Amino acid sequence: MCFPFSAPCGWRLVAVAEGRFKGFGKFNVVHDHNQGAAFEELWFTQKLDHFNGADSRVWKQRYFVNEAFYKPGGPVFLMIGGEGPANPAWMKEGTWLTYAEKLGALCFMLEHRFYGKSHPTADLSTDNLRLLSSRQALADLAHFRTVMGETRGLTNRKWVAFGGSYPGSLAAWFRLKYPHLVHASVATSAPVFATVNFPEYLEVVWRSLASENADCPVLVKKASDTLAERLKDPKTFENITKDFKYSATYPLKLYVPLAVVCEI
């Protein structure tokens, strides 16, 4: 799971904008006026398929709002959810709230389709998973921004998208694909060029482990290889759920990719 403003591929910042806000270097740590506050889950009526005019189906997409710093006429910040549940902790923590306090911004966070509590379909069949794509996710953002702008009187406000890692990519693409809707994007550790194989991802992890002990990454690889072999063997496969105390809605199946188990 990737959180905004953190990613294993290192700290890089991509800023895509029409202009630059002044005074970023003078920002102080945000004073959280909502410390301990529970942010209410809100639900947005989202289109199921943005690219099929004959499909009028809709679903409920989860989002959160922080109005603590908003000043009339201020910008609107949109934190983009990624491949995991939207964490409401980001509504009261993070650098983006430092910016929000300085600029008087209204803050939204929109959960990514098919993750967390945002379920567009009843199951994860192959036919339904065709609706899980960055293209649909970007259209979700565009529709959310448009409707929120109209219903809350924020259409003419300057919207700024935030995200890290995959959501960072979405933030950059959002600005590039829908420049009339988003004034700027802050994309942290964003791999904006899609690649099928991304070995650099694990190379960073290897170097990080080796910085503490040269034998550490070797032992981790040995453990991973052992687990992979056990997943292939029906005799040892059943022990995986017990050893890893696995419990989920969807049971593990034989020959499940190792990455799936590690992600769990």
Automatic annotation (TrEMBL):
Q: Does the keyword Glycoprotein apply?
A: yes
First and last residue of the signal peptide: none
Q: Does the entry feature the keyword Signal, yes or no?
A: yes
Q: Which InterPro entries match?
A: AB_hydrolase_fold, Peptidase_S28
**SUPFAM superfamilies, A to Z:** alpha/beta-Hydrolases
Q: Which Gene3D superfamilies match?
A: alpha/beta hydrolase
Going by the UniProt record, its keywords in alphabetical order are:
Glycoprotein, Hydrolase, Protease, Signal
Q: Which Pfam families match?
A: Peptidase_S28
Stored PANTHER family: PROTEASE S28 PRO-X CARBOXYPEPTIDASE-RELATED (PTHR11010), SERINE PROTEASE 16 (PTHR11010:SF117)
Annotated family: Belongs to the peptidase S28 family.
Q: What is this protein called?
A: Uncharacterized protein
Write down the species: Characodon lateralis
